[in-house]
Amino acid sequence: MNRTVVELLADNAEHADAFAGRFDEVQDGQHPEAVTVCCSDSRVLQDQLFGNDTPGRLFTCSNIGNRVVQRTDAGEVVSGDVLYPLAHTGTRTAIVVGHTGCGAVTATYGVLTGDIDADSEPPGIRHCVGLLAPHLEPGVGLLPEGLDRTEAVNRLVEYNVDRQVDHLVGSDDVPDDASVVGVVYDFQDVYGAERGEVHVINVDGERDPDALRTEHAEVADRIGRLWTY
């Protein structure tokens, strides 16, 4: 068998041994505390970035660009992957997790600036970029002058998280008492803190760091943005 699969199965054996007794409370159902929407980048370790080793605690969704939307005949709606725990398991916290150096944001930025030909991508990737592009296009126009490509992308990472938060907050399908938090996971020293830290940039649509620190003083040191607009 493929060596990678052999190694993964060996790792799974260790996982099964460590977790054998941790599924007793969730055998017949789940009531996760939060749904997290992460980018499916291999560097974004969805459960581990929150230190989670408890089955049933987090409902994890992933896709390129940490999108919460899907396109239907009725227009853009909250993705069923994200909506399911909010609608059916009593979950009342949604966390949109962007990350520094996001490839999906980089590709979308390239398409919007004419540096990448979207038609050159396979249809599936073209579809995903097409879902991001309308939300990111206004942000490209707002970018400060003089940024290099990396700096521009990391500001658009924040802008993308904001747009996904807005979509959840504004959706009639999301319960009114749900809290929606936008964060950025930094493993590239962009925010000047520890690699792997999560930085809160948006809570229920509020983006102003000072307002957020006042409202959420208990995590004031974890609130910060690269860009306000």
From TrEMBL:
- Which GO molecular function terms does the record list? carbonate dehydratase activity; zinc ion binding
Q: So which residues are the signal peptide here?
A: none
Record has Ribonucleoprotein as a keyword:
no
State the reactions this protein catalyses: hydrogencarbonate + H(+) = CO2 + H2O
Binding of Zn(2+) occurs at: 39, 99, 102
**Which UniProt keywords are listed?**
Lyase, Metal-binding, Zinc
**Cofactor requirement:** Zn(2+)
Domain of life of the source: Archaea
The question of whether Zinc is a record keyword is answered with yes
Q: Which E.C. number(s) belong to this protein?
A: 4.2.1.1
Kindly state what the record says about how the cofactor is bound: Binds 1 zinc ion per subunit.
What top-tier enzyme class does this entry carry?
A: lyase
Listed PANTHER family: CARBONIC ANHYDRASE
Q: Which family does it belong to?
A: Belongs to the beta-class carbonic anhydrase family.
Q: What is this protein called?
A: carbonic anhydrase
Q: Which species expresses this protein natively?
A: Halobaculum saliterrae
